[in-house]
Every structure is written in structure tokens, then in C-alpha cells.
């Protein structure tokens, strides 16, 4: 009788472990193929996204039509916005990576910005009226943080093939393509580094909502 109970418990624990492994693998596949979750670490995309928001990111939204002007994108900034080396030991990197995967801590290699220029575009700031210009046409940016100007830094750049020019909506505090002018790459981000599009805010509870793909593209 006792032996039967021990075997039953052992089978029960094996079932629990197997279930946990299956759920973990399923979650990993979903997050690598369809949807992932990221922590917003700064105010650079206010008012659209707030510091501490967790956003669900669609990895498939750009598969058919590609990235367009006006799209908000999540991208890997290593080698451009951030250096390749972390400076941490492997154990620390593993612990940080786990927290980032769970959406509990920010991933400082991952950024969220708005696309202001795609291949072939000339992006300039500012026009005589103080607006951003794309291909010589002034752009009215309704998504800008209230009180911000399009850019305090004057620039003009033509975007080559396979690259994007990205800027935050809260221009006064955003680290974006403008910050890397004069650096290798000139602030342009490769389209291959785009992870996906923020699809919905899932945390905090009071901020849960779907983020529509911006139709008012510049």
C-alpha cells in the first residue's frame, strides 16, 4: 500500500514537471514567432507609452507590407543605439535576461520609436514653419508630446536602402536617431533589427488597451 502511494506521488510530480516544461516551451515558441512582451523603461514615447508599461509586441505585423512611415516599432539597438558588450559576468547576464524575458525589468538593448523615414526619404528639420519635413513636405505630428517642438537639433538626412530613421514622440527627452548623428551609421537603424510592432498595453491593469497602427503617417 505504501509503495503504491509513493509511486502515485512520483507519477504526480512527473506530470507537474512535464506540464511546466510543455507550458514553458509553448510560451517560448509563441514569444519567438508571434507575440512577445516588453517593458517600457523611459518616457521617450509619451503620451502613447508610459514608463513602466508592459506592451505586447506583434512579430508578424510587418511580414506582409513591411515597415511604413509613421509606424511605431520595437527594435534591437545593439551595435547602434547600444554597444554589443554588456560588461557583466555570465551569471549576472543570465539573471538579467530572465527578468527581461518575464517582463519584470527593462531590456536596455530594446527600444521603441516611431519611424519618420524609410528607404529613399529625405528627413529634415525644420521647415520655415518649424515643422519636420519629409521629402520636402511639412509634417503635422499630432502624436508629439504636448509642448515639444519637432526637434531642437537641426538635421537633414537621406535614408539608404535597408535603413530607418527613428524618433521618439517625446522629442525633448528621447534618445533616438538624432543622438547618433556623426557616429558610425549616422543614426540609421537596419530594418533587420526590427522586432515588431507594439500591439497592446497589458500592464498596469488601468492601462490595458489595444494600440492601433497609426493611420496618420507623415
TrEMBL record:
It comes from Arthrobacter livingstonensis. InterPro entries: LexA/Signal_pep-like_sf, Pept_S26A_signal_pept_1, Peptidase_S26. Belongs to the peptidase S26 family. Its EC number is 3.4.21.89. It is a single-pass type II membrane protein. It catalyses: Cleavage of hydrophobic, N-terminal signal or leader sequences from secreted and periplasmic proteins. The keyword Nuclease does not apply. The chain crosses the membrane at residues 12-34. This is Signal peptidase I. The active site is at residues 44, 113. SUPFAM superfamilies: LexA/Signal peptidase (SSF51306). Keywords: Hydrolase, Membrane, Protease, Transmembrane, Transmembrane helix.
